[in-house]
User: What shape does this take?
Amino acid sequence: MDRKTLERKLNRKLEKHYGSAVQARVEKECIRMTGTLDDWGDIVSACAMCAKKGARLHVVNDILLEGAEIPKMRLPQVQDETLEGEKPDVLIIGGGISGASIARELSKWKLDILLVEKEADLAVQASGRNDGEVHPGVDLNKGTLKQHYVLLGNRMFGKVCRELQVPFQRCGQYVGFTKRWMYPLVWAYVWHRKHICKVKDTVILSSKELKKKEKNLNPDIRFAMYNPSAGSVCPYGLTIAYGENAVRNGAKVSLNTAVLEMESANGRIKSVLTNRGRIYPRLVVNAAGVFAEDVAEMAGDRFYSIHPRKGTNSILDKKAGMLVKGIASIKTIQKNTGHTKGGGIVHTVHDNLLVGPDAIETYEKENFATAQKSVDAVFAKQKMTAERLSERDIITYFTGVRPATFEEDFVIERGRKVKNLIHCAGIQSPGLTTAPAVALDIEKMAVEYLKKEMPVVRNEKFQPVRKAIPVLRAMPKEKRDAMIKQNPDYGVIVCRCEEISKGEILDALKSPIAVPTVDGVKKRLRPGMGRCQGGFCMPLVINIISDYLNIPPEDVRKGGSESVITYGKTKEAK
Amino acid sequence: MKELTCIVCPNGCTLQVEKNGEEWKVTGGRCRRGEAFAIAEMTNPVRTICTTVATSFKDVPVLPVRVSGDIPKKRIFDVMEEINKVKVTERLGRGAVVIENVLGLGVDVIVTSGILAEQGQI
Amino acid sequence: MQNQYEVVVIGGGPAGLAAAIQADKEGAKVLLIEREARLGGILKQCIHDGFGLIRFGEKLSGPEYVERYVEELKDRQIACKVLTFVTEITKEKEGFLLTAVNREGVSEFGARTIVLATGCRERTAKQVSIHGTRPAGVFTAGAAQHLVNLSGLMPARRCVILGSGDIGLIMARRLTLESAEVLGVYEVKPEPSGLTRNIVQCLEDYQIPLHLSCTVTRVFGEERLTGVEVMRVDEAMRPIPGTEERIDCDALILSVGLIPENEMAESIGVTLYPGTKGPVCDENFMTDVDGVFSCGNALHVNDLVDYVSESGELAGRAAARYTAGEQPEKVEIRPDASLQYAVPQMITVQAAGGEGESREVVLFFRSRETVRDADFVIELDGKTVFSKHYGVLRPPEMERVLVKLGGLDIKSDSKISVSIKKREAR
Assistant: This one.
């Protein structure tokens, strides 16, 4: 279809729904949507209406939202010149799973790599706020980048997690069906997935076989689709591990660093301005998550749009962990609303259960606020999966915002107008699963590009193995005893719920990407993630950080620089 | 007649106080201590304060103290101000006096914990 | 064996200390294990007074109260390991094997009996369905108390307190004394959760408003808390739409309930009682796992430390006297709907005129509702065998009764029920 025909066709469709409020214009590199609507849901629907899966032309959303202000990106408070004049070979924007894994794969080469992340830690946004499922890819159709990478990524997980010393379990995924008449349909689906889509591990289990594997699921499940290759991993743990390994191999990570503008000329990014100085990179990798579109715009290469989609998960006490051993969900005949995978129950590597997520379109890219109705909706649904699931076991909940394109696929390619730019955008689910495979491809693209500009040689000293902080609670007695004899701090338990010692906390404070805040320690080791949610250990963690850094305890922060925990000494605070 | 909740002990009895000429009549309490409390409440309400004083020791930055006897309710914040001026520089033990006869009220501010005096703690 | 004890007490707070001392008085070989660096449990940070009125007839501060026990423990030279964390308990043929870690390494202890005095933890913001962002500035009352009273740090300048539990009320006064502004205490229930005297001396004395049937539903602020949303609730404690009000403040302090810590108890198969979230126990505070005793706030949440110490003593004594082997039969004590719970939940059978004649049993209970002019009644096989009159019974206030079992014939098929009976209803 030529551009004019397509444009006419799209506009006819739009007119039917939105009158003259919205128009589509088919350009050389994208389909640009313009107009004004007063409802974000309508904007998303209008754009989605014009998007075609797998098409080269992406939808770019320029429709104005009337009556609401789209919040600007939150910026770190720090302002300094620490990065001024830096000339990295590769500048990676974004310290989520994409950015961190790309940094690690690129560190196999003798390159000057700089990763900037605007938050106070890695994996603060989407990569820190998801359910950690390593997907088998059974829900995806052939022909998408998602599907291509999910198969590759899933297979890589065992090796990657071994090298990075990150706990990973192939616990299997079960999708239950309650209606027997659906069997032929599911059988055909499974056959297709297995033989055409090459998700080779897909099988159907009878209710009896299912019961043997997962005895607490809904007894009305007649049969289930089963993928033993599905697994679970700690998503922020993996991101931090990738980041640490990259740093060990020579990459630089700069936290609290936001990209503010770019200077481009002749289809090249000349310089990148951050709050910590101006950087002059040879090549830029855009792995900015929900802000990838904004980065693309700064570079003059915006040919896709991100529509943020938020979802809330609840975390259940370990006591409930035995309810589901793998990953379970149920398919009922009601239509799933929106683009959710329907949510499910995931048994995490730390033996908690994660329940969710739901999926709500939002124009607020950084609104991580939770709402009771999300928790309720998810529970109502997941109680059908496992009826003994109880809200009483909830210890906490969180909301993540997924960066989706209107094509609902990844954008992994070189800049279309800008030569020294690689996009790694639209990385929504199953972006955690795909990351190891995507990173390898981006590594190739980057090296290929750089080789035209400079000699690129292997980093002979590349060490693929990352040394994790020892987990004493998981050690056999003898080994734990020996460790404590070497370092008595390993014998001082600070977090009673998760059994974490002072020694482990000090290790985290000395790790390659040390984040000496209460949240930074929590993310690396889990104190504060147990059932008391930090009530007991938070004051102790503050003391350990304050002693280690030799700063007053009131200067210890929860996370970001403004997240003051205490306002000073009692007798002085007035 | 006025109704009060006795705060002498956790029972929290509801007391009725009435003035008969110069005499106070107190009813509703489970014990005698309530009577004294109720009369004081009507004439000169008193309270005790428990707080901390700053120390110069890193391991015990603040030390629990209290007043050795009741003080007038309206002087609570005055006494707090005095207590907040103190910085303990010796490893005082429980019962040690931090301020003698605070503001001339006839009571001392005393240490209520042995935490600072304990040796060899972590 | 050097590491073999007759009684191992886990937890060095008021319950554990009393248990260890009492077991020692009975002549048992005792070990006390405490995970923190100092003995005393939560009382270390409870610097307010009011402790010990029942036991010592004095108004003591928390440290003063508990240090009496710590000193007695030391005087008696009872074996004690601080900064030692029990990681595992396994049942052996005879008794139990405990694994613990401390700065010296991993060690093992043999125990004929175990007294669990592990205390309780606080319910968190997420457990009472507070939503919104996750800034710094949300504290449980206990964490705030630790910061103020032990670390000497100010967690708030202008705060809202959710929950009128005693620690919340105490913290309202404490923060006010340290010149913070407490804007109000919000309580979801139609009546306060804490003791009345604390409402008077912690809130009314300082003109801190108490808002009943109100709750905090949301917090605002990205890095540090900037405000909370409060709402009125209906009789079912559900927020009433349209009653949202935003209060600008810098901290939210939560005093929304305590939960007995029984993860260790559960790991050795102890059954928990839903009404208390503590173990099911008999009049000796022995759980349904023979040789495992429970006391203090791990057994059920107390509001007076004096009773915590008492339960510790009873458990410690029983543990010291415990002999393995066939245990006497027990029958259930059933509370009716007028009670939240009664502890113990089981009682040993006895024949009238038998050995148990002189037995006295301490019974703790909590009323479900506020009732005036009522009797606490124990019925054995349909016959009232004990009755005590109360002017008023309130859910926040736990009551204790001493019941003499003399002359009672408690058989293995006896039905024992406990209830609160209103007088005018009779």
In short: Chain B touches chain A at residues 52-54, 61-62, 84 (CB under 8 Å).
